[in-house]
Amino acid sequence: MSTKAMSTKVMSTKVKVARLSIFSNTTLILLKLIVGIITGSVSIISEAIHSTMDLVAAIIAFFSVKISDKPADENHPYGHGKFENISGVIEALLIFLASVWIIFEAVKKLLHPEDVGSVGLGFIVMFISALVNQIVSKKLYKVAKQEDSIALEADALHLKADVYTSLGVGGGLLLIWITGLNSLDPIVAILVAIFILKEAYELLKTAFTPLLDAKLSDEEIKVVEEQINKHDSIYCDFHNLRTRKAGSIKYIDLHLVVPENMSVKNAHDLCDIIEDDIEKILKNTEVMIHLESCKKGCEECIRTYNDDNCI
């Protein structure tokens, strides 16, 4: 299969799962809003708002994966990968705003308590919401990990949080039915909002860091160094190893010092081998190697390469 065909297939998979998230969120929002209005439960309404943020996030993820998978062009020579990171930052800010609004409404209801009706109906809707989001979240996580997509991972994180918050709200409604304490409803809503705030912070940290061109993880850098060191009997040294990430693409560049009398062809072949080794281990990686000639004149560098196939 050609690179272009593979890229199209990947994009199609990412877009399909993002579209599924939009459909599921839209359905659940309508359910929660209707039941929230019927019951007068601020915790259910807070869940509807949370799901609305999930829907916005799903729409952002849908468009960001379509844009980020576009190949490099004249205006974006390094590709469009950072669109995914930007979408993740926007999603995190939306979650933060939603949680603040939920806390505001819940405090108002604590000060002016109201009875919660049709508790059983609310519990059923929360259970259905948790089940649907669990299924969709697992699908999103699977594709996100396969394609290293921060946008889909962010969307999956939204839904995973929604699973826990829906179960929390459902549990709160169950306690209201058992104890008759309607004040539990806004308390549960505040706990949901605090959980969402934590979610927003984690997502913002994950999405924003690559925008600052931060290095790859220590584990990934270790893998890169291991692949380079496999060929240390041929080159003399390497330095200036730099790494960064944009969307799902990892960028690696380094300076490789080779013996002074190594031919251009052999040096180029060595670079190709190292680049291939790294790209086989780390998915979605682009490697750039700058060659330098060793000027030390030491015994280690006095090597001859008469055979063109020596590497």
From TrEMBL:
Gene Ontology terms, MF aspect: cadmium ion transmembrane transporter activity; ferrous iron transmembrane transporter activity; zinc efflux antiporter activity
Cellular component GO terms, alphabetical: plasma membrane
Cross-referenced SUPFAM superfamilies: Cation efflux protein cytoplasmic domain-like, Cation efflux protein transmembrane domain-like
GO biological process: intracellular zinc ion homeostasis
Bilayer topology: Multi-pass membrane protein
Gene3D superfamilies from the UniProt entry: Cation efflux protein transmembrane domain (1.20.1510.10), Cation efflux protein, cytoplasmic domain (3.30.70.1350)
Ranges annotated as spanning the membrane: 20-42, 48-65, 86-104, 116-136, 184-201
Domain Cation efflux protein transmembrane: 20-212
Keywords annotated in UniProt: Membrane, Transmembrane, Transmembrane helix, Transport
Subcellular location, record wording: Membrane
Domain Cation efflux protein cytoplasmic: 216-294
Family recorded in the similarity comment: Belongs to the cation diffusion facilitator (CDF) transporter (TC 2.A.4) family.
NCBIfam families in the cross-refs: CDF
Protein name (database record): Cation transporter
